[in-house]
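WARN no homologs supplied; continuing
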Amino acid sequence: MDRRKFVQLLAATPLVSIASAETTPKCRIVTSYSAAAVPGMPGPYPGKVVAVRSEKSLDPAGAVVDAGVVREMMARGICALTGEATVPGAWRRFFEPADVVGIKVNCGGHPWCVSSKEIVAEVVRQLLAVGIRPPQIFLYERFQNQLDEVNYAPHLPEGVQIVAAESRNRHSENGGYDPATYVEADLFGEEDTRSNLMSLVSRRLTKIINIPNMKDHGATGVTGCLKNIAYGSFSNVARTHHQGKSHTYSFVGTLAAVEPLRSRTVLQIMDGLRAVWHGGPFARTRRYVFHPRQILFGTDPVAIDRLLLDIIDDKRKDEGAISVWDRSPRYLKTDDSQARDQDPNVNIIIREPGHVEFAAGLGLGVYDRAKLSVRGIDL
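OK structure emitted
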């Protein structure tokens, strides 16, 4: 896009008011990309979720994944989602040989809860079966050090590319981001008010598969499909929560809805083999790790995250911890960054689980639990 066209676009883009539970941040969304005829989110199956569960997917300790069982779970899930009789037919619903495909993983929960290598490897295997060549497949995350810690490369065919936008968190490196595609918002008087989309997403990829985990989050309540694809594809997002207050209520969905990210994210595969019920998005200790032993499939990120809210909150209740919906100031402790990890009844941010419903209001999916179509499959 030439400079003149960009300036015209910027001048014509209005400030969009985002209704929040307590505040109303204003955002300017700048992009030259248009929505697809059928945007990838919520995609062709709004409100539909397939949950495949197998006790055999992990060993009793939850440490070892059975790759063969995962392959069967993946086959059953993708066929049930699409209604196709064969696995190749199901994957061809989304992809063709000419596609350049991004796989958005989540590495922030290393070492105990990341996008499983076995699930990622099976996704790549199926893309190759469609006819997509290895150099057309990009495994991506924002931070290179997190990708290095997980080390997916030995589990993938030669030629599959592993890409990050920055070397590590909070280093403010902008080379991997698109200067012409961003969301601008002044949230806490910060110096840098822009969050830019990764250049890989805007300039290279034609399709994206989102592989998040099931995790609690201290600012959003949970971190699932929406937050993984939004905060994992844009720069400068940690600024949205500070000193006990969070703007994640509106910002997660706003980022996810930006084109071309929204239209290109065509498949959601939530890794629920392992999960984190407190202290997320990290998993520094196994104390808060549990094992749902399931994988969720859909094109609708809101629908999957709506189920995730219940999964995490029910587990927290079982453990005697406060609800992700509890926004009482009595539990807020902002002067100790380790308090959240030490005590499940302490918040360092007022959580915003309502970000899932907000995203539904942007047209990203179905939130009403009664309107979801959920199919469970046990292996």
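The CA atoms of residues 165 and 176 lie 4 Å apart.
OK
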